[in-house]
Design brief:
By secondary structure, this protein is of the alpha+beta class. It has 9 helices and 17 strands. Strands 3, 4, 5, 6, 7, 8, 9 and 10 form an 8-stranded antiparallel beta sheet that branches. Strands 11-12-13-17-16-15-14 form a 7-stranded antiparallel beta sheet. Strands 1-2 form a two-stranded antiparallel sheet. β9 and β10 form a beta hairpin.
């Protein structure tokens, strides 16, 4: 699927629910019986209840009538750790890469029969929640004032706050459905006490010309390959990264390494890999290449960060890293 395509819908042991799978992520969940799925989820949940995690997520679910006109439809479902693979119909790997802990799922229904599915993901830290949020938005939605950042596109609403990523799916764009989406989201938002700012590396993206909603926070190779594939893992053992798209058609990726020396060594290894593959060809200066689709890519170390510029010409790509 192309970048920005609508995520596939997730699948519970009962039926398919709201969006969770992300673009370009491979691998489907292994098939398990409904009974075994439930048993494993309860076992995993019990092991984690001592920390208050599962209880806290359940407490965030609005009760029937807490949002006027909307009632719970069925019982909540919980999935923790590796059990995410039994819930998401492909794409669980990216959540695990960021640091997934658990998710609670609850359906809601109004008197007119409209449905909303609510998913509350608990991630390992706020940066992980922010990262998943950036990958679930396409950049084409409307900003909504929820949590530390929210996005509404069609009948999908996502927001993040603290270690939580909240997704609501309305299944249609009727005014009542969209109003219910935002009302339920507001009730969840009010119950999350944690607050956090985006990761500091986001500031590596110059704000001038940066497209709203285009920022993607990266935690590993799955995330990097989602925004731009270098077709190799050599030289890419980075700690974290960020990508932003600009109004002039260019993009900037910043990868953070443990130290300046680690960044320099990574760039040397990555350059050797690019020079040895036919997927890229040198295009001018030593740090500029052209990929198989005609896009230009330029590299420049900046302290402990490796800057990668993407553009329609060598000059445009170089302009992003200078």
């Amino acid at each position: 699927m192309p970048e920005g395509a609508r995520p596939e819908r997730a699948r519970s042991s009962k039926r398919r629910l709201g969006p969770a799978a992300l673009v370009l992520l491979l691998g489907a969940a292994a098939a398990l019986s409904g009974a075994e799925t439930g048993r494993r989820a309860l076992v995993a949940g019990g092991a984690l209840t001592g920390s208050g995690g599962q209880e806290t997520l359940r407490a965030l679910l609005p009760a029937s009538g807490a949002v006027p006109g909307w009632n719970r439809d069925g019982d909540p479902q919980e999935f923790a750790g590796e059990d995410l693979y039994t819930y998401i119909d492909g794409g669980a790997e990216i959540y695990q890469e960021y640091g997934f802990r658990r998710v609670v799922v609850q359906d809601y229904r109004d008197a007119a029969g409209k449905s909303v599915s609510l998913e509350i993901f608990e991630m390992s830290d706020p940066a992980a929640a922010f990262g998943i949020y950036t990958f679930k938005r396409s950049g084409k939605g409307k900003s909504v004032p929820l949590g530390a950042g929210g996005d509404l596109e069609d009948y999908y609403l996502n927001f993040w706050k603290g270690r939580s990523l909240v997704t609501l799916t309305g299944f249609d764009e009727a005014p009542g459905t969209l109003a219910g989406l935002q009302a339920l989201a507001g009730a969840v938002d009010a119950g999350i006490a944690d607050k956090a700012d985006p990761p500091a590396i986001v500031a590596a993206l110059p704000p001038a010309g940066l497209k709203p909603g285009s920022v993607k926070y990266i935690r590993g190779l799955l995330g990097l390959n989602n925004v731009y594939s270098l077709y190799t893992a050599r030289g890419l053992a980075f700690k974290e990264g960020v990508k932003g798209d600009y109004e002039n058609g260019s993009s900037l990726i910043a990868l953070e390494y443990a130290a300046k020396e680690a960044c320099a060594a990574a760039w040397t290894e990555l350059k050797a890999s690019l020079d040895s593959t036919d997927r890229f060809e040198a295009a001018g200066p030593a740090a500029v290449y052209r990929d198989g689709k005609g896009k230009y890519i330029a590299f420049a170390p900046s302290g402990s960060r490796l800057l990668i510029g993407l553009g329609g010409s060598a000059a445009a790509a170089l302009g992003m890293v200078r």
